[in-house]
């Protein structure tokens, strides 16, 4: 049966992400801050309003960065539901829900959170203007920046330590990760063609070939993180790969 402390932890994390989503949605209603980032400048920094719809420069859009926050909220919502059902059923597995929870964590939640943490802070420390210009410090609270780009990593790492997760085959896991990456990149490109402005300043400095190389290397990076997550899970909990179905 899932430990009570683990259930409480999952509930607290879910509450944290719900609070973040609410706070960020309220930030989007602030009529003063858009004046600071005038002339559509906010289009450049989509991670700032991570979840809900926001009007900017006359457009109704969903921010690309919303995927990350939405993903974490969904994952911890499913995890809390899994915790509750297991406790009410005396520790018995709710197979479909548990499998869905593990698939979300192994192929998306862990790789995406770790990638965001590493990619953001590597670029920030190298040249913050490539990812998070200093002007944003006057608009976005420091704690919110860390909530979006720092705290996600220890929270996700704690999940690796607290509970084992069954990994799919490498082919399935990497295929799902690739499909998600393509969808995310497509969204970034679509926003550029719609607005003429890149969501992150670093993209504006790259040629088409450079962008292709950047996106390709990013996938290699996040795929490596996926494989690292599998190794960490195996190191902590042993072999938790999902058994293959036997052919008849």
From TrEMBL:
One of its GO terms (molecular function) is hydrolase activity. Pfam families: Far-17a_AIG1 (PF04750). The chain crosses the membrane at residues 103-123, 143-162, 174-193, 209-228. It catalyses: 13-octadecanoyloxy-octadecanoate + H2O = 13-hydroxy-octadecanoate + octadecanoate + H(+); 9-(9Z-hexadecenoyloxy)-octadecanoate + H2O = (9Z)-hexadecenoate + 9-hydroxy-octadecanoate + H(+); 12-(9Z-hexadecenoyloxy)-octadecanoate + H2O = 12-hydroxyoctadecanoate + (9Z)-hexadecenoate + H(+); 13-(9Z-hexadecenoyloxy)-octadecanoate + H2O = 13-hydroxy-octadecanoate + (9Z)-hexadecenoate + H(+). One of its GO terms (biological process) is positive regulation of gene expression. It is a multi-pass membrane protein. Belongs to the AIG1 family. This is Androgen dependent TFPI regulating protein. It comes from Gorilla gorilla gorilla.
């Amino acid at each position: 049966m899932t430990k009570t402390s683990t259930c409480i932890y999952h509930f607290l994390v879910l509450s944290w992400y719900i609070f973040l989503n609410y706070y960020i949605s309220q930030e989007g209603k602030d009529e003063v801050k858009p004046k600071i980032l005038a002339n559509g400048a906010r289009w450049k920094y989509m991670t700032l309003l991570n979840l809900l719809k926001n009007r900017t420069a006359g457009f109704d859009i969903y921010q690309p960065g919303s995927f990350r926050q939405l993903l974490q909220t969904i994952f911890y919502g499913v995890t809390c539901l899994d915790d509750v059902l297991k406790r009410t059923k005396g520790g018995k597995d709710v197979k479909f829900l548990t499998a869905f929870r593990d698939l979300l964590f192994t192929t998306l939640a862990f790789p995406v959170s770790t990638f965001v943490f590493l990619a953001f802070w590597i670029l920030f420390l190298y040249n913050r203007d490539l990812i998070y210009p200093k002007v944003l410090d006057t608009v976005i609270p420091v704690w919110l920046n860390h909530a979006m780009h720092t705290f996600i990593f220890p929270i996700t790492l704690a999940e690796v330590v607290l509970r084992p997760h069954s990994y799919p085959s490498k082919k399935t896991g990497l295929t799902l990760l690739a499909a998600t990456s393509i969808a995310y990149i497509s969204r970034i490109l679509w926003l550029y063609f719609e607005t003429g402005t890149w969501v992150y300043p670093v993209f504006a400095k790259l040629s088409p070939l450079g962008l292709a190389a950047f996106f390709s290397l990013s996938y290699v990076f996040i795929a490596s993180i996926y494989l690292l997550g599998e190794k960490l899970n195996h190191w902590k909990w042993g072999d938790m790969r999902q058994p293959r179905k036997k052919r008849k």
